[in-house]
Design a protein that fits this description.
The complex is a heterodimer of chains A (369) and B (208). Helices cover 52% and strands 9% of the residues of chain A. Chain A contains 17 helices and eight strands. In chain A, strand 6 (287-290), helix 14 and strand 7 (308-313) form a beta-alpha-beta unit. Chain B is of the alpha/beta class and 208 residues long. Chain B has ten helices and five strands. In chain B, strands 2-1-3-4-5 form a five-stranded parallel beta sheet, with helices on both faces. In chain B, helix 6 links the parallel strand 1 and strand 2. Classes of the chains: A alpha/beta (369), B alpha/beta (208). The A-B interface holds A 91, 97, 101-102, 104-107, 182-184, 187-188, 190-192, 234-237, 240, 268-269, 293, 314-317, 319-321, 351-354 and B 12, 14, 54-58, 60-61, 63-64, 95-100, 103-104, 107, 145-148, 150-151, 176-179, 181-182, 185.
Chain lengths: 369, 208
């Protein structure tokens, strides 16, 4: 029987070979899920939403019962962390929402135009310190349990023989401000006060980069997310995207590469128009992970053998489809995009109400790759 | 007809638009006529969006400017509904509190000449049915950002059918996780990937 240490090593090697486009024994599978795992095991989501220890245990039990996975993306989770990523309040099951429904970000304008000036004059950390206290109801004490537990969570996954590939995340100023201002307001800001918005983005970067570098040096992860959701090119004219998105996204990726960490571009919505920009990053050094809104086969065409692709079994398919449909789609991905340079995964995260048999079908599909 | 106003709306020239609206008001131009000029400009915005000259950010900006102009006009806009292309009822289905996508669609539909009834978020089926009975819309939009809301959408559409109202309306769905498979599953008439898809579908439906 293979020890969990050996399994961990074998699986991580498989992921590394995918990024390096080396010959594979089979395609690796690295799913992403949190709330699904609780639903799968019949644990009320209200119990795990803000309990990273229980959720981590639930994730490990859920995934190991569904087949052999090569890794997971996050080691643990608390719904409160979404407030840091979105500068928004999060409604929790069992508190503001019914007991067994998923947590949801409350889309509200909490950040003001004056906050841009605070960022410009005092930096991101000073702004966020005040913001989280006054407008996120003193968030940090609720986030800290997850941040403190994260290294332990990684050890638990390692004991289970499963690598965690993205325990940290870089979020560019666009996404933070877009969340805090709300999308309509932020888009108007970019028209009506572009210089101020850019100055705030520039002023935020030193603190954000220092934080990302510190996390990379402390945890020494294999990879890290560089997140893009509302910054997708489908939403923005090229000149706007080139000004407010790509320079910051690229800088975060370059910092991770300096630290020996693989940037994993976690991309929601449609990024097709700007795929060629990812060629600016070194060959065989990053992972691009679309959520199914970007045509993954188009990514293959544009990025060819330049960047490993991870994805993208869609949420709707795992929620509404059948195991045969999931298997067929997974095989199509492996045949047309892999086997080298490809990691099978869900498109963004596996939804709360995905059918466990569909998730199992995705995981099992790699055995025929 | 103010070509200046139409162009300002189409080109998203906020300051030009504001001064032209004020000038037209001062000249005593009827509010309805000013609104029609703005809508003409919005038609150009929509065309540029289709041609990928404009993106969602420009759609949102156009809607924001349109709302600002409408607020400037103020006063008697009662004639505006008479020029409406039709009525559009929309909400985020129950179990889902996300409102940004819904707000973008309702705003863009409103700016494109539709009388919009916004039901808000976390909307129960009974409110959709009541709104259909009361406002007699041509189009109903149901949005969600969660796959867990699919069953709610399906139940809502089935209930609209059971209430004998299904033949009176076209039902569109949209939101992050939706696709044509979702539309088929819930029994919608179509899936709209973007706010502009919703505008174009609705305009075709009412022969514009």
């Amino acid at each position: 029987m293979t020890s969990s240490t050996d399994l961990y090593t074998q699986r991580l090697a498989r992921i590394k070979r995918a990024v390096a486009f080396e010959k594979q024994d089979r395609v690796p599978v690295v799913p992403l899920a949190t709330s699904f795992c609780a639903h799968h095991l019949g644990i009320p989501i209200s119990q795990v939403a803000a309990n990273p220890e229980l959720l981590t245990d639930t994730m490990i039990k859920s995934f190991t019962s569904l087949g052999e996975i090569d890794g997971v993306q996050q080691p643990t989770f608390s719904a409160h962390i979404l407030s840091m990523a979105w500068l928004s309040k999060v409604k929790l099951p069992g508190i503001e929402l019914p007991d067994n429904v998923s947590w949801q970000v409350a889309e509200q304008e909490l950040m003001t135009v004056a906050d841009y000036d605070t960022v410009i004059n005092q930096g991101y950390n000073a702004f966020f310190g005040e913001f989280q206290a006054s407008r996120l109801d003193n968030l940090m004490p609720r986030v800290m349990p997850m941040l403190v537990f994260a290294p332990t969570a990684m050890q638990l996954w390692e004991k289970a023989g499963i690598p965690v590939i993205a325990p940290i995340m870089g979020i560019m100023p666009y996404e933070l401000f877009c969340g805090g201002r709300t999308m309509p307001r932020f888009m108007r800001d970019m028209f009506s006060m572009p210089d101020k918005v850019q100055a705030a983005c520039d002023a935020a970067m030193p603190d954000l980069l220092t934080g990302l570098r510190g996390a990379a040096q402390m945890l020494k992860p294999y990879g890290a997310w560089v997140g893009g959701w509302r910054s997708a090119p489908e939403f923005l004219a090229p000149k706007t995207w080139n000004r407010f998105v790509w320079p910051y996204m690229k800088k975060m990726a370059e910092l991770l590469l300096e630290e020996g960490v693989v940037p994993i571009f976690h991309l929601d919505s449609n990024w097709e128009r700007e795929l060629e920009r990812f060629l600016e990053l070194p060959k065989h050094s990053c992972i691009i992970s679309p959520d199914h809104a970007t045509d993954i086969f188009k990514i293959k065409q544009v990025l060819g053998d330049h960047m490993c692709i991870m994805g993208d079994v869609p949420a709707a398919l795992t929620a509404l489809g059948t195991p045969a449909e999931v298997t067929a789609y997974s095989q199509k991905l492996m045949n047309e995009i892999g086997p080298e340079g490809f990691i099978l995964s869900s498109g963004c995260d596996i939804p709360f109400n995905a059918k466990p048999e569909n998730v199992a079908a995705m995981i099992a599909a790699v055995q025929q790759s | 007809m103010s070509q200046t106003l139409i162009n300002a709306m189409a080109d998203l020239e906020e300051s030009v638009l504001v001064s032209e609206v004020n000038a037209l008001k001062a000249q005593g131009v009827a509010p309805l006529e000013i609104i029609q000029n703005l809508q003409e400009g919005m038609n150009i915005v929509g065309k540029r969006y289709e041609e990928k000259e404009y993106y969602l950010s420009e759609l949102i900006m156009s809607a924001e400017i349109f709302k600002e102009a409408a607020a400037l006009i103020g006063g008697d806009l009662s004639g505006a509904n008479a020029a409406s292309h039709g009525t559009f009822v929309m909400g985020t289905i129950y179990g889902d509190i996300h409102d940004i996508g819904k707000n973008i669609v309702t705003t863009v539909m409103g700016c494109n000449g539709f009388n919009v009834i916004d039901l808000g978020v976390d909307v129960p089926t009974a409110e959709y049915i009541k709104a259909i009975q009361e406002h007699k819309p041509q189009v109903v939009g149901i949005s969600c950002l969660l796959t867990t809301a699919f069953d709610g959408m399906k139940e809502c559409i089935e209930s609209i059918k059971a209430a004998g109202l299904r033949d009176q309306v076209k039902i569109l769905i949209g939101g992050g996780p939706c696709d044509q498979t979702t539309a088929d599953y819930v029994g919608a008439d179509a899936y709209c990937k973007t706010a502009q898809d919703c505008v174009e579908y609705s305009k075709r439906l009412v022969n514009i």
